[in-house]
Amino acid sequence: MNKNNKFLTIGQFAAMHGINKKTLMWYDEIGLFKPASINSENGYRFYTYHQSSVLETILLLRELDVPIHDIQAFMKNRSAGSLKALLEEKIADLDLQITHLQAVRTTLCAHRQNMSTLLTMDLSEISIIEREERCLVTVDIDREITFEEEVELITAETERYRLGRLHDASYGSMIPVLSLLDGRWDQYSKLFIEIPFLTYQAGLHTAPGGKYVRAFHKGDWNEIPRRYEEILRFAKSHNLTLHGFSYEMGINENVVDRMEDYIVQIEIPALPSQ
Predict the structure, then answer these.
(1) I want to staple 240 with a disulfide (CB 3.0 to 4.6 A). Which of 17, 193, 194, 235 is the partner?
(2) 249 phi/psi in degrees, rounded to 5
(3) d(CA 91, CA 253)
(4) How far apart are CA 14 and CA 24, in angstroms?
(5) Per-residue pLDDT tens over the stretch 2-22
(6) Is the CB of residue 215 less than 8 Å from the CB of residue 126?
């Protein structure tokens, strides 16, 4: 007998597709997917192999979180065009989800690296590292701006770049190297948001690739100027010219409660002195 015409019980058909037979009963009740035949004496449902491709389409759409009413509408007017449109919409949704998950993974890896650094770091050490070029979203600030206004600016930018959660990105502040060289330690000019996989767009800030001087500061922010003085001396002794901006970012705020335990990572681009 041709397999397309052979009847399968509801249990056999459900097992073949890896679902519960109650699911098939529910699909029948709501008119989404009906059996090929129902025994008039005992009400048993029977299906044919030919129905498998239709059920798999429904299961695929369910796995993609397509609402039941949308699937019902599609099933009433099935066509190559309608399925193509529906799948294109879901592919776009999946692409967004994949990008989000990649961003979350990158953020988690950054947090893991920060925790590894915390466990092994020497806070007194100043080092030279290599950094890849990266694009940052920045917000202009000055000494007159309030903390509440900073929060509003950051919130606006996270909405603009469709960040689902604050943990999808890293945040920090920037101070021009020229201000540091002039001893203007408090002249922060920008807040930055580092979004994983962000490609260059007009208006973004490019943090250059290459050598950076890296240091850490723990505790009272009023002592940061002293740390910057140490960084400037380090750069001079290693024949390095600092340029651009200093990028400051907290690396342990998720594991400390007291400000005196807060650690700031400081990174400044550096070039060999001429």
Answers:
(1) 235
(2) -150, 130
(3) 37
(4) 7
(5) 555 688 999 999 999 999 999
(6) yes
* Furthest CA-CA distance within the chain: 96
Claim: this prediction has a pTM higher than 0.85: no
Alpha carbon 111 to chain centroid, angstroms: 13
Instruction: Answer for the pair 169, 194: CB distance below 8 angstroms, yes or no.
Output: yes
